[in-house]
Amino acid sequence: MMTLSSRVAVTAIASLFLMGSAFAETPAPAAAAPAAKVEKPRSAASLECSKEADTQGIHGKKRHKFMSKCKHDAKAGAATKQ
Predict the structure, then answer these.
(1) Which residue, 30, 38, 51, 43, is CA-closest to 74?
(2) Among 8, 49, 57, 73, which has the minimal tally of Cβ within 10 Å of its Cβ?
(3) CA–CA separation, 66 vs 48, rounded Å?
(4) What domain range is 68 assigned to?
(5) 19-65 per-position pLDDT tens digit
């Protein structure tokens, strides 16, 4: 049979384990979702290059390379016209 002091000790330890979650740190509130990404308006050269890539059926990495070259050429052409 358990003595009174043993029962008190067991009860105190059990209550500490059970109350530990009550004092646990609460998780930080979730950060506010960032606002929707605002896209820059596309230039006329970019739109024309995109249409040309669509008509040629270019996709993926090839499209990226094509678009870069096309826009670069369009800028170079516009600079020589001035």
Answers:
(1) 43
(2) 57
(3) 12
(4) 58-82
(5) 766 666 667 677 666 667 777 888 888 999 999 999 999 999 999 99
Q: Is the pTM of this model over 0.70?
A: no
Question: Considering only CA atoms, which of 39, 42, 38, 46 is closest in space to residue 64?
Answer: 46
Q: Are 74 and 49 in contact (CB under 8 A)?
A: yes
Whether residue 71 contacts residue 42, with contact meaning beta carbons closer than 8 Å, is answered with: no
Split into its structural domains, the chain has a count of: 1
The 3 state secondary structure assigned to the chain is CCCHHHHHHHHHHHHHHHHCCCCCCCCCCCCCCCCCCCCCCCCHHHHHHHHHHHHHCCCHHHHHHHHHHHHHHHHHHHHHHC
Domain contains 43? no
What residue type is 15 in one-letter code? S
Residue 54: both structure tokens together: 């669509």
